[in-house]
């Protein structure tokens, strides 16, 4: 009989208690999701023991701990197995092993306009349809061509490949045309996400292509857009035979890390992903809503699983599904795998204009890239931008320091941490309200027009795609709610976001220096335009830190401030700050102020914001939620301003 040590038994009881607590916290905060509740009722596991999972708000190297040179390359297969196991455990679920032999039946062949179309049925006990399209060679010529393997919703992409002399294969594994439910039914003991099943089906079609005449099976490229881009990355990550992969606007847990595109970034986020598309991943992923920083893997490791094969990550700069900074961080981190394997240029990030849609020019650029990496003429790769290295706001600067920093000492320390603001790339435009530096200012007015109850300066987190509009929100945007409540609301895109996505702070400056200078200028312009000389401030996340630095410098006299979750892990500063959140909060003394503090926050130690509020004498309202701007939190902001500000005019 095996004896259990008393300490180990206590640890198990403690871990179980923590899991029950985490489960209760999340159950109380998560919006309803029928499929998730059904999974739980059917015996789905409780929340993970987050205390035992590493907390990482930033990315790490997929090759961390491996030696360089040949020894590191030799160790990569074992590391790759670990990365794949992480994805199976936490995101995709376990899929069936590849069959020893995959049957393929050519149901029909027809030729039209110089293209031969073969309708192929793939599988035993299940069936996935595939349409193989090949250019008809000249008489007497046998030619094997590379093939672009796609899901059936990408017909125009297939036509573009055929126009280049490639083949294309369209697989019935897409929304509205999906045979993978049949595959899943044939494996009743397997619990896996829909995207993983689709990726598995793409691999089975690749099995079939090995024996198809006219196909160069060594040059089969897999690609896709949006959710299909996620599937393409999964297929290449778990099947080394794909020659390369194109990921177009694949979003969170495609090429975009979940921990860098969350609710607090107004990104796609785990909560939205698992509620709107509950079958895409294994149900347990939903437990990481608000705790994405505890997810043991992320998108950069998915990218690394394709190394050393060529990978193109295509991102649209105005796509609300993604964040350009998150894409850059993922590619930068994943490149370590290619460098380890001697292919440092194998992973490329391509930014394109516009929103989520990939137009003809985007597809043409992808094929240009594919031809260059799969044996065509070489192409000069775009020179990657030189990234600045600002300092993140440190988590240990949230709690009060050993002594308070006040007055001129604080202002001096703030200027040292921020650096000079520099200038912007903006330029004054006719007919638009702008700051002297050219930053566009948007004024939202009450439904009846006029000056309203007062002016509110809205400061949100930098959302790279949509600026102050903060796309992908799950409720009416807070600035719009404030305008409906009778306020005039001044909004602008922070540096590096929205219309200013390509703008970087000047050398020697920092993002927070530019954001703070812009906020002061926007407040002045809005005050002059509205006649309200003392604005109220409503701020969230990174915007809350902007508001507090604005207050510390004393450049704007505000009427009052409501701050939601004043913490962030963004790289913001020129140098480590010699002051704390408590020191900044103390500068709001003498005016109405409140902090709305979420129950759990990846970027602030537990209880740190509460301690800062106590030290500064600022009221704090706890939220039974995570670091996000939920509908309930929006209502709390509007309600606080209603109570503190001028009353609405009677009609």
UniProtKB/TrEMBL annotation:
InterPro entries reported for this sequence: AB_hydrolase_fold, FrsA_esterase, GCE-like_dom
GO MF terms, alphabetically ordered: carboxylic ester hydrolase activity
Keyword Signal: yes
Top-level lineage group: Bacteria
Pfam families hit by this protein: GCE_fung
Family (UniProt): Belongs to the AB hydrolase superfamily.
UniProt protein name: 4-O-methyl-glucuronoyl methylesterase-like domain-containing protein
Species in which this protein is naturally found: Geodermatophilus nigrescens
Taxonomic lineage from the root: Bacteria, Bacillati, Actinomycetota, Actinomycetes, Geodermatophilales
